[in-house]
Specification:
The protein has a four-stranded mixed β-sheet with strand order 1-4-5-8. Strands 2-3-7-6 form a four-stranded antiparallel β-sheet, with no helix packed on it. It has helices at 3-7, 24-45, 53-66, 85-97, 107-120, 123-129, 248-257, 262-285, 293-322, 327-353, 371-381, 388-399, and strands spanning 139-142, 158-162, 165-176, 183-189, 200-206, 212-217, 226-237, 241-242. The radius of gyration is 22 Å and the shape is globular. It starts with a helix and ends in a 6-residue tail after the last helix. The relative contact order is 0.10. It is built from twelve helices and eight strands. It is α+β, with helices and mostly antiparallel strands and 405 residues long. It is 47% helix and 14% strand. It folds into three domains: 3-102, no CATH class; 139-246, Butyryl-CoA Dehydrogenase, subunit A, domain 2 (Beta Barrel); 261-399, Up-down Bundle (Butyryl-CoA Dehydrogenase, subunit A, domain 3), CATH 1.20.140. Bound molecules: flavin-adenine dinucleotide (FAD). The site of flavin-adenine dinucleotide (FAD) has 19 residues, from strand 1, strand 3 and helix 12.
Length: 405
């Protein structure tokens, strides 16, 4: 972990904002004031132009942690503050409005890991691993393999029990931000004779363990946001097996469900401001496309779709909170609609801006995304976390009750 991450000590949290819980308006106002201050200071980090993407992300997590907004929604025992959904939504809404950076390298740390460990982890695993996240510990997800993506249960990475540890051999792929990760949630096969869904186990792997090799994969947008993991005789202590041996498939379903919550909601909020900024910049520049009625109409239609999607995301949050069974079908619909919308919006930006799209950067910390980058990157959203084709299969079979193809 970098020094920047260590600086944020959970022990010295300024509770000015958290103490306003109970008065929504005062809480919102305090979050807004803090964000305005933090966003004004973020350029200090990059004053010498040397801050890496990793440093920027760690800086932002440390800033949030100073005022108790690192992992505020977790139980107090594990470094959180039991912040209710209503207040999490305020933080997400105000963060998007302030154009605050997304905590991209912490997606697995903030969502998948707590969601899984709260449901399946031992008390020792929870107290050992969860509090570190607010202090900058990065987790990655090692599920997909070269021949096991949509058909994840076909994974072949092996885990063999030898005394007080397991020995792991195999290869993972598309592991997002794993080049920065301290730990990995890993699926590996512990029983080669059992039916494929039944012979998988779930592990917590130290990325610094001997035998872990990370090879970044460069994407079409020029960045390397994910990597291949080559695992050769990596030792994982038995205490880092989650749940029972061969129970990994059921546990992995909890992990994948983690993308249902505030994470998706925040993305929907961000898209709103990206679209608004894009329009405002077009007006300021008197962009030619504003005078083309069909393009103007297309923008308005996309804006309407985005607002409808935001409503759906709010409904999903409510359904999740009340434990409504409808959440399971809403989440697949939202995933397909939201990621398809990103594709359409970025396609529109590219169409109206062409190569001049390079000049309209999102003011995101350390990650200057322009319309061309948005366009290229938008394809990944329709694949990550289960492709939209697979989501449509789920809708047709489980929601509409259509026969399996
Ligand atoms: C941006 C991004 C981040 C990711 N991050 C991670 C990560 O952190 N950790 C991790 O483990 N994985 C990660 N992944 C991997 C992701 O989960 C897989 O790419 C995804 O599940 C698809 O698997 P695949 O790439 O092997 O494609 P395949 O499964 O080979 O599919 C190829 C094509 O066939 C279609 N297809 C396959 N089966 C069917 C079917 N039954 N019906 C209809 N169509 C079908 C798919 O939709 C797709 O279009 C990430 C992927 C992306 C793009």
């Amino acid at each position: 972990m970098s020094d920047k991450a260590k600086k944020a000590d959970a022990g010295c949290v300024d509770r000015t904002i958290l103490d306003k819980v109970g008065d929504e308006a005062a809480f919102r106002e305090a979050v807004r004031a803090w964000l305005a201050d933090a966003m004004a200071r973020r350029h200090e980090l990059d004053a010498d132009g040397a801050a890496s993407f990793y440093d920027s992300q760690q800086w932002w997590m440390a800033e949030r942690n100073k005022i108790g907004l690192g992992t505020p929604h977790w139980p107090k025992a594990y470094g959180g503050d039991d912040l209710s959904l209503k207040y999490q939504v305020i933080v997400a809404e105000e963060g998007a409005k302030a154009r605050a950076p997304a905590l991209n390298i912490f997606i697995v740390s903030l969502n998948h890991v707590p969601h899984t460990l709260m449901a399946w982890g031992s008390e020792e695993q929870k107290t050992r691993y969860l509090p570190g996240v607010a202090n900058g510990v990065v987790w990655c997800q090692g599920f997909s393999e070269p021949n096991a993506g949509s058909d994840l249960a076909s994974l072949r990475t092996r885990a063999e029990r030898r005394g007080d540890h397991y020995v792991i051999n195999g290869q993972k792929i598309w592991s997002s931000f794993s080049m920065y990760a301290d730990y990995c949630i890993l699926l590996a096969r512990t029983d080669t004779e059992a039916p494929k869904h039944r012979g998988i186990s779930y592990f917590l792997m130290d990325m610094k363990a001997p035998g872990v090799e990370v090879r970044p994969i460069r994407q079409p947008n020029g960045e390397a946001e994910f990597a291949e993991l080559f695992l050769t005789d990596v030792k994982i202590p038995v205490e880092d097996l989650v749940g029972e041996e061969n129970q990994g498939w059921a546990i992995a379903q909890s992990t994948l469900a983690a993308e249902r919550g505030v994470l998706a909601f925040e993305n929907g909020e961000r898209l709103r401001y990206i679209m608004e900024d894009f329009y405002a910049s077009a007006v300021a520049r008197e962009a030619k496309w504003l005078r083309e009625p069909h393009l103007h109409r297309e923008y308005v239609r996309l804006f309407g779709e985005m607002q409808a999607c935001r409503r759906m995301l709010r409904r999903l949050l409510r359904e999740n909170e009340t434990g409504s069974p409808a959440a399971a079908s809403t989440v697949v619909h939202v995933k397909v609609i939201n990621t398809t919308l990103w594709r359409k919006v970025s396609d529109f930006m590219l169409k109206t801006q062409g190569l001049s799209g390079r000049f309209f950067h999102e003011p995101a910390l350390g990650l200057a995304r322009d319309p061309i980058d948005y366009y290229i990157t938008s394809f990944g959203g329709t694949i990550a976390g289960g492709s939209n084709e697979i989501m449509r299969n789920i809708i047709s079979e489980r929601v509409l009750g259509m026969p399996r193809a």
